[in-house]
Amino acid sequence: MLVSRLSKARAAFSSARDFVSAIETKESARGRLEHRNPWSNEDLDISPRKDWTWGWWDYAAFWWSYGFSTGVWAAGSSLVSLGLTWWQAIICIFISHLLGAIGMAMHSRSVATYHFGFPVASRVVGGLRGAFFPVFVRVLVGTIWVGVQLVQGGYFTAVLLRAVFGKSFHDLKNTIPAGQDITVQQLIGLLVLWTITLSILSIPIPRVRIIYTIKSVVFPPVVIGLFIFCILQGRANGYSPGKFSTSAPTHDATLA
């Protein structure tokens, strides 16, 4: 199988046409069509039964690991920095995620039943052309969010590279102006993470579920350990849990 994939990869770079043919979305999830349909392709068609590989445990693993992601943690800390107390932030996060979970469950019912994706589900409401708008908004929001995640992850990757390569990596000359708010080490970390992420994106959805299964086991203790480390570092530097809020607690009508 590996030899076959390497052979296909070499063939894809033999010419510009072969490269486009290798990366383009196929005409249909069930093979070539007699007449090409501009409103359909492999990603938009109903998934064939062989691709129904995700079970309830895979979705549970996906959302369980998502709950430990840095994005969720950052949401809580941002609320605290805006003036909420820790328990107010927890309540806000709980309510928002509960409402979001209800909305996603309701919206995903048809998709789970008929096995089509978000762009097709949007057509149910807006029609063929009206579905372009929610898809465009999703692409826009996703682009911004992925950019934020890559920068955050790149900084963490830079720390990891420093732990692996030590002083030689830490002492790299920084030729990037200070006003850019990024160092050479952080830029390298971002590029390394981006390369790894790009390669993972090439894995088909039916096969990527194993990654979330592994993540659901490995990620929670790592994040909890990092949280404990940050608390201990804060205590060592003279901070206490009550001092983590950067502004005065918000009360009464100001909460609105």
From TrEMBL:
Residue intervals passing through the bilayer: 59-80, 86-104, 116-137, 143-165, 186-205, 211-232
Bilayer topology annotation: Multi-pass membrane protein
Subcellular location: Membrane
Family membership noted in the UniProt record: Belongs to the purine-cytosine permease (2.A.39) family.
Species of origin: Phyllosticta citrichinensis
Alphabetical keyword list: Membrane, Transmembrane, Transmembrane helix
Protein name per Swiss-Prot or TrEMBL: Permease for cytosine/purines, uracil, thiamine, allantoin-domain-containing protein
UniProt keyword Metal-binding present: no
UniProt superkingdom: Eukaryota
Pfam short name (any one): Transp_cyt_pur
